[in-house]
Design a protein that fits this description.
Elements (H helix, E strand, L loop, with lengths): L8 H20 L4 H11 L4 H16 L1 H8 L6 H10 L10 H11 L3 H4 L4 H11 L1 H10 L6 E5 L6 H10 L5 E2 L6 E4 L9 H4 L3 E3 L2 H4 L12 E4 L6 H9 L5 E6 L2 H14 L4 E5 L4 H5 L4 E7 L14 H4 L2 H18 L3 E11 L8 H10 L3 E9 L1 H4 L4 E8 L20
Parallel strand pairs: 5-6, 5-8, 6-7, 8-9
Antiparallel strand pairs: 1-3, 1-4, 2-3, 9-11, 10-11
Helix pairs in contact: 1-2, 1-3, 4-5, 4-6, 5-6, 8-9, 17-18
Amino acid sequence: MQHPNEFLPSRLHKLSMLILEALESIIESRRHADKELQTILRSNDFEFVEREFVVEVLFDMLRNFRLLQAAAQTKEYNLDLFAAWLALRNYTTGSVKNLHDLKKRITMLSAVRAMRYSYPDWLDAIGAAELGERRWEREMSAQDEPAQAVIRTNLLKTSREQLLKTLKNNRFEAKPYSRNDCGIILPTSAGIFRTDEFQLGHFEMQDASSQMVSPLTNVKPGMRVIDACAGAGGKTLHLAQLMKNKGRIIALDTSEKKLEDLKKRAIRAGVSIIETRTITSTKIIKRLKDKADVVLIDAPCSGLGVLRRNPETKYQVDPEWLDSLRKTQAEILASYSRMTAPKGTLVYTVCSILPSEGENQVRKFIEEHPNFTIEKEQRFSPADDLYDGFYVGVMRRCDEEVDSNKKIDQNEIGSED
C-alpha cells in the first residue's frame, strides 16, 4: 500500500474524506462494506495506487473502528478519526500535530481486549463465555487480519493446473490451496473479475473454508439434492461440480434477487441441473417432504466467522438480534429437515465461530428428532485454518422409507400461487 506521505496533501485529503464518508455510511446506515466500496470505486477515477489505498484503509479502519473512535475522542467521521488511524499504523505526517498523544491513548486503550480488537463489550463477553478466554482471543486476533482472496476452479470447464498456468501467464501470483483439488490462493482479487477466465466461467470467488463444506455432503452424480438456503449459489454451484452436472439440485431461498444471480452464475459455469424456487410460504417445504437424498442448510447466522471479509458485522449486531437469530436457526433446521428422504443426509452449516449457532443447534435438533443421527462434525477456525470460520454438522436420517415414490415431480415444486 502507498505510504500516505507519498500522496500530494490535497489528494490525501480527498482520499481520506472519501474513506470517512464510506465509513459513516457503513456504520450509521448499516450498509454492506463491499457494496459501499464498489460505489466509491465506480464513482471516482482512481489511479491503481489510490484504489489500493482506499480499499485497504477503509477495511483497516472498519476492523479497528471502536479503538479509533475512542482514541480520537470523537463520535464524528472527521479527520480526527483518520489521524487516529495514522497513529495506529505509525505513519507520520506534517498535517497531523497530535500523533504522539494519539499513540499514547491507543496504547492505553488497547490494554482492554474488547477495545484492542474493537468488539462491543457484550459480544466480547459472549465469545469468551462460549469459547473460553484463550480460544476467543486467538479467534479475535486471527480475524483482525485482512482476508486472502481465494477462488474455486470450475472443474466442469477446466483443470486447476490449466487455470494456474493461465493466471500466472497473466501475472497473477496464484498458488494451489493444499486441502482440495480446486482452490487457488491469490494475494488480492484486484483485476481477477476482468479476466477472460472469469467471463468463461472457469472459476468462482469462494473462500477456502467455504469450499470445504460441499464435499462433506458426500453428493454423487445422479442424486436429488436440495440447497435449502442457497443465496446467490456459491455452494450450489460447487455441489453441481461435485455431481458432475448430473442429477438434480433444487436451490431454495427467500430472496428472489439472490436466486436470479444464481441463475446467471449457473449459465456462466455451464451448470444445467439447478432449479431455483423462492420460498414465500411453508408450502414448498411440505411439497418436498421426504424427497431429497441430500439437504444442505446453510443457515442464516451472525457471520462471526467471516469478520475478515465483513468487519462491519461487529457493529451491526446486538444481543436481541442474536437471540432471535438462534431461534430462527432452530426453526429452519426443524422445518427444512423434513425434506430429507429416509436414509438421506442432512447437512447444517453456519459461518459462525459460536457453538450456540453450530454444535449446540445440532445437538438440540438430534434430541428432538431421534430419527436423525450425527455422522460427522467439522469446525473450520480462522485461528487454526487461516481462512473463514465455519461449523458443519452432517446427519443421517435413520428411519425406514415411508414412501417408495421419492421422485420429485415438477408439479410438486411449481408455482405456489
